[in-house]
Amino acid sequence: MSDVARQMPIGEVAERTGMSASRIRFYEARGLLPEPDRAGGKRRYGAEVLRRLAIIDAAQRVGFTLEEIQDLLGSRDELAHERLRQLAVLKLPELDDLIARATSVRQMLRICSRCSCDSIDVCRMFDERVLALRDRPAAGAARRPKRGASTVA
Question: What is the pTM (predicted TM-score) of this model?
Fold first, then answer.
């Protein structure tokens, strides 16, 4: 069986990975996937693309940006596990901030869920002391400066 015959068209790759063909082409255009072989002008992928797409998907699920994933996948002098460790260490404070924000939002929604005010104009939800809760860190969470993040309202 020739190499071309063992290669998969983009539709098969999409089906096997659960991704759309346009998503695969996007990753290719962004440099996350190597340029595929072509047969009759159509993309043909080897089985290794399935592993690469699984890595990209898993990395996105834990919050890595496409730039961070490209850095992880890129060829540099350091070992892959060292790059992964560095990216994870950088990502953890962002996750801590996200958890603190979600906890604050949950706290505000709990207050809203107990509202029985006749008018929004008199609702204590909008009192200064209640609004101050949004800026208070969650129990056990350390506050860090946010990079361009909006505040919880």
Answer: 0.67
